[in-house]
Design brief:
Blueprint (H helix, E strand, L loop, with lengths): L2 H11 L7 H4 L7 E5 L2 E4 L4 E4 L2 H4 L8 H11 L13 H13 L4 E7 L2 H18 L9 E5 L8 H5 L4 H4 L10 E3 L16 H16 L3 E6 L3 E2 L5 E2 L4 H12 L3 E4 L23 E4 L11 E6 H5 L21 H16 L2 H17 L7 E7 L2 E6 L15 H11 L2 E2 L6 E4 L7 H20 L1
Parallel strand pairs: 3-15, 5-6, 5-7, 7-10, 10-11
Antiparallel strand pairs: 1-2, 2-3, 4-12, 8-9, 11-12, 13-14, 14-16
Helix pairs in contact: 4-12, 5-12, 9-10, 13-15, 14-15
Length: 451
């Protein structure tokens, strides 16, 4: 199809996610037809640095020979077969490799399709686990998560979420949960400051867990960084304190590493940085290197054992997806895991993370920058009407969106969160290219603010 025909058909038939479609129809959004390394190419021949890692999932770049070959080899065997009562070598090999790399004790892998389904499976697993435990505790029906949490878009994942703009419309569909305040200093309410608020959050965490311990089915958290909330970075020690309390009170800890896993925070998994082993670990996005939809929910042997019994006992986990453990996705994931070692991806991610920290520090006192945050290769710039006193831009100005358009004119694709500009280079992106990403985005910010 010609470009004009593609645009016409796109507007007539494609409903884009998280996209105001009326505005989308007024703009000539790039139609991506190719990629090479850390660049995207559109139908008109323009090239862009992939500054959002194709929505935070690309790890090694595009058209990576080792991953391409792994998929082609598997395609020559079979593209898909079910895991319902059958098995496949790629799903078996990937499960083994994941269990060797995640925190010790997570020995069992349940596959699904994306981050939302990984979390949805985790919620159902721990809910059913409590009902099948040998010690038969009182029913536990309530999940605890953080304010401003985002764990996906399925009904269970939205129930444990807490971003009003995304979730408020579905309130009548959701099951009740308990929210504890996120220890983010710049979110301190009246009566607290940046010094007192994290300590207050720690107290609220402990009091809430102790008060409701007999009701709590599980605690759900993005370790270290709340990604879709705006790259909100937790203070050191918060995750380990969550683990300490949940262990003491017998509450399963569900770590959602969909966004923060696979090198994004500087280690393969964010939990490693505070020596935390969750009871359930949710993975997706970077699992296949950003190639194909695949997710994994890993659990301990203690949780897995509660599902073992004769068929008549009804302990089976009656949950699954048609494409669970898809062989092509598993083959891509295996190749991606090998590249972490072969190309020293984590070493590179730490170098790029240091570069981001240095470049972002130059914006720390900008009159229209409320705050800059980063962890590893995850970075955020809050744009505000005034820094002191703090005043946001009017929502209808859509400053963040305008910066994204200005960055596009400078050869970079980014995806803001409102007026928070997010930089998310792939962990394997060369440092010089990450520097070019910063240059273009900073220029785009200056250009839009000058208007």
């Amino acid at each position: 199809m010609e470009t004009a025909a593609l645009r016409e058909a796109d507007l007539a038939h494609v409903w884009h996610p998280f996209t105001p479609m009326l505005e989308y129809g007024r703009e000539e959004t790039p139609i991506i037809v190719g990629g090479d390394g850390f660049f995207l190419a559109d139908v008109e021949g323009h090239r862009y640095i992939d500054g959002s890692s194709s929505l935070w999932c690309n790890i090694h770049g595009h058209r990576v020979p080792a991953i391409d070959e792994a998929i082609r080899t598997q395609l020559g065997r079979i593209a898909h077969s079910t895991l319902l009562g059958l098995a496949s070598p790629p799903s078996i090999e990937l499960a083994r490799e994941l269990c060797l790399r995640v925190p010790a004790g997570l020995n069992h892998v349940f596959y699904s399709d994306d981050g939302s389904t990984a979390v949805e499976a985790a919620l159902k697993i721990v809910y059913q686990y409590h009902r099948q435990r040998l010690d038969r505790p009182a029913p536990r029906n309530v999940f605890v998560s953080l304010h401003a949490a985002y764990h996906g878009d399925t009904v269970g994942a939205v129930s444990v979420g807490g971003i009003d703009q995304f979730h408020r419309r579905y309130g009548g569909l959701l099951f009740p949960t308990i929210k504890v305040p996120a220890p983010i200093a710049n979110h301190a309410p009246s009566g607290h400051d940046a010094a007192s608020y994290p300590a207050h959050c720690m107290r609220e965490l402990e009091q809430t867990l102790r008060r409701h311990a007999d009701q709590i089915a599980g605690f759900v958290i993005e370790p270290l960084v709340q990604a879709a909330a705006g790259i909100l970075v937790h203070p050191p020690g918060y995750l380990s304190r969550v683990r300490q309390l949940t262990t003491e009170l017998g509450i399963p800890l569900i770590a959602d590493e969909v966004a923060v896993g696979f090198g994004r925070t500087g280690t393969l998994f964010a939990c490693e940085q505070e020596q935390v082993r969750p009871d359930v670990l949710c993975l997706s996005k970077g699992l296949t290197g950003g190639y194909l939809p695949l997710a994994a929910t890993l659990v301990t042997s203690e949780i897995y054992a509660a599902f073992l019994g004769e068929p008549a006992e009804g302990k089976t986990f009656f949950h699954g997806h048609t494409y669970t453990g898809n062989p092509l996705g598993c083959a891509a994931a295996l190749a991606s895991l090998r590249l972490f070692n072969d190309n020293k991806v984590l070493d590179n991610a730490r170098i790029v993370g240091g570069l981001l920290a240095s470049r972002l520090a130059s914006l720390a006192k900008h009159p229209h920058v409320g705050e800059v945050r980063w962890k590893g290769v995850m970075a955020a710039i809050d744009l505000v009407g005034n820094r002191e006193p703090h005043e946001p831009f009017a929502a209808d100005l859509r400053i963040g969106h305008r910066v994204a358009l200005a960055a596009r004119d400078r050869g970079v694709i980014i995806r803001p969160l409102g007026d928070t500009i997010v930089l998310m280079p792939a962990p394997a992106m060369p440092p010089d290219l990450a520097g070019r990403l910063c240059d273009a985005v900073f220029e785009a910010i200056d250009s839009v603010l000058a208007e």
